[in-house]
Write the structure tokens for this entry.
Amino acid sequence: MIDLSVDLGRGLVLKNPVMTASGTFGYGVEFLPYGDIGQLGGVVVKGTTLAPRAGNPPQRVVETAAGMLNSIGLQNPGVHHFIDNYLPQLQDLGVTTIVNVAGNTVSEYCQMVELLDMPGVAAIELNISCPNVKAGGMAFGTSCVSATEVVGQVRQRTELPLMVKLSPNVTDVVEIAKAVEAAGADSISLVNTFLGMAVDLRSRRPVLGNVVAGLSGPAIKPLALRMVWQVARAVKVPVVGLGGIMSAEDALEFLLCGASAVQIGTANFVDPTISWQIVAGIAAHLERIGMTLEEFTGSLQL
Amino acid sequence: MQVKAMGTVLFNQEEAPGIFRLRLHCPVLVESSLPGQFVQVKIGNDYSHLLRKPISLHQINRQAGTLDLLYSTVGKGTVALSTVLPNQQVDLVGPLGNGWMKSIAADSPALLVAGGIGVAPMLALAEELVAEGRAVKMFYGARTQQALVGLAEYERLGVDVESATDDGTYGFHGTAVALLEAQLAIGVAGEIYACGPRPMLRAVQSLAKQAGLPNQLSLEEYMACGIGACLGCACAKSDGGYAHVCTDGPVFRGEDVKL
């Protein structure tokens, strides 16, 4: 098969450009009945926090037109539990494990990356874009000043490759991308979910327990594609595109617009085998058109 | 073992107004299916019904390699599912969840409590309990006589069914919970298995607690993945935090959940 490997900087080399997006693939092991998770480009694990988090009250998810809203609220058993219970298994399975970390404070982000500097952790995805928590999360990712602060502080504390995940809920995502690049990000992933909401006309109540929630799925793909294209033109570090990718064709569109790699999110809920199909579909397309991944990436003809 | 597999439609018929029974031939999935488990059903091939719909297993026939789903056309997705025709293929993920738990009082009668479409996971359970030689009594409530589905099947199995309707058109004029309550009041004891709307489950949970009877509740919650990855289908636990209906349930011991 064609070489699909991709270098995302500071030694993070993926077998292929297909990762699974945080929060949509659990810790990878949930998908063992559906494929060899070691064959994916990378598994970005569920958003991890320093202390365990119970998450938001139900209802937490609802389907919308060509998409879904979620307000899970970063439910997770905490970074120590992840290190003790999931990391060894992922290491045994040969998974390129990328840990998505979210903090309430800059200090929490720093403590977590120090704890995670260990064999088996391939990279950190710095989550400064979770829309479903009160403190931290998206608050860090919506201003250049706070984004620079958290990325800069974390950069000083780890040699691990640092992927910074951006929120689309900003006026100018390019400004934020440039700020995190300058602060030491090795790659930039975008987009996290768009803040949305759903209401029930009959009960006149919000559908979801947290009232507002993150929108994902095919509904957001054109928005995400536009943002990825804008950012990829503006920064030198590799860009990882995500937002509504449901097929190999969708993934290829992000690569065409300048993404070096992609993440598959909501599609994993629809078809638990889709991430592997997308790897195969990308390879088949590149072979058919006779281009290497490197040649194809960012080859959009304007 | 969970699989993603295509099931062939054998029939998809309306058993009662708005309640359909879909029989699918899917041996690879049926092989490991247990009563109380569910499947995630993909409806259509476009994005108009993006997420799969969790539907519980109504009947499992290992010899024939078939599974039956009983569902009510409550939303756009299930309405679309009701138009699927024999010989068409349906995209399934399953079997999912843990199903009904092993009995902790095997020598006592099984008391099944079903409300409305909550009857869906009861047929496979009743068949299993009868095969184990348990005495099975079922309290089954629905809005109206027409909405009571499959009474003859339970009777054929030898299940002692007491029915109730909200409008009094058949059986007891009231709810399945009221029937259970009356039986408990005269000293009937046993292990309770319940599925139905949240208020019904809350009432069963409280009656079972008062009577000190073991009870299992099958819960429904909005789901995305169905396999424990998204953490969407949260249900509050009695001792704090949240359980997930897909992988921790859908069946829970009454004392373990806060409804």
Notes: The CA atoms of residues 255 and 297 of chain A lie 5 Å apart. The longest strand of chain A covers residues 42-48. Chain A has a mean pLDDT of 96. DSSP finds ten helices and 16 strands in chain A.
